[in-house]
Amino acid sequence: MKIDILDFLGISDQICPMHVVIDAEGKILAAGPTLKKLRPETEWVGSSFFDIFDLSRPRWVQSTADLIKTAGSKLHLNFREAPQTGLKGVLAPLPSGQGAFINMSFGISVLEAVRDYDLTSADFSPTDLTIEMLYLVEAKSAAMEASRQLNLRLQGAKIAAEEQAFTDTLTGLKNRRAMDHILNRLIASGRDFALMHVDLDFFKEVNDTLGHAAGDTVLQHVAKLMVQCTRQNDTVARVGGDEFVLIFEGLVDRIQLSGIARRLISSIEEPIPFGDRSCNISASAGTALSSAFAAVEDGALLLHQADVALYAAKNAGRARHFFYQPGMEGAEEAS
Predict the structure, then answer these.
(1) Which residues are catalytic?
(2) Cα separation values, 78 from 23, 32, 52, 121, 180, Å
(3) 31 strand-pairing partners
(4) Is the pTM of this model over 0.70?
(5) 44, 119, 194, 229: least buried by Cβ within 10 Å?
(6) What average pLDDT is seen over the chain?
(7) pLDDT on residue 322
(8) What is each CA distance from 264 to 72, 168, 174, 241, 258, in whole angstroms?
(9) Rounded Cα–Cα distance for residues 108 and 234 (Å)
(10) How far apart are CA 100 and CA 235, in angstroms?
(11) In the chain, what is the greatest distance between 2 CA atoms, to the nearest angstrom?
(12) Mean pLDDT, residues 141-170 taken together
């Protein structure tokens, strides 16, 4: 007794949306909706099964008759045209030699297929485990994205905290902690550098006469001048109330450093407006060179040398810049 294929195709579309029905000659009589979605331009009905699919296993299959003999065995096949999505299948012969019913699935290629063809749960059988797997993949992707966003926020918070820990809040310059870190790094690298200690002259008078708000304005103004007088890879740090340290990486030329100090002192001596008043200050500076006398192994020693040179400049009349020289300590003590 022959069966009417149309009687069960509607049911097959629901429970096996990736099926094909072929006749005894290998011509396709029907195809499931998901397969049609994968190849919307293909004329499925009337096409040869082997014109659309390439069967890789079993290798001995050469004809439709051979294909029907694989009933119950796992089939490995893929589309002949790109994208050549890999498929798994199993064949069940139709009664009375009318052909065969072949049900297919994506197997391990399901994730690529979902991406390539924009598939949804509606494209699979309600009982297909692929649905659960897709839900798990989506849940995992959502969890990973949430984790990535959290890590980015934590990283941003860490960077912000580290930046805050190394920044002087009033001027936006590096603070003493940052200076120590940079100084130790340079010493460890063995690179030559110069360290300039700058102290503001007459700053106390500004605070005493105009108040701390005026003093803060002066410090912020001086910080901008120092940044303008230095290179991008130099370090400018506020290490005390009105004390600053400038680190010039790779620069130990005395002529260039003297020119920087001269320009900096000159710009600081320009009156600084504060309301309807002007703040008048100056600056003194002392510089120590990392390679001037012996290899520096301790940042504290270099800071001490720059400090000695600074106070030698102050004792010489302020608004000056001196390089450290051996014996300056005695002059400092005598003064």
Answers:
(1) 242
(2) 20, 16, 9, 22, 65
(3) 20
(4) no
(5) 44
(6) 86
(7) 96
(8) 89, 20, 18, 18, 10
(9) 56
(10) 80
(11) 125
(12) 75
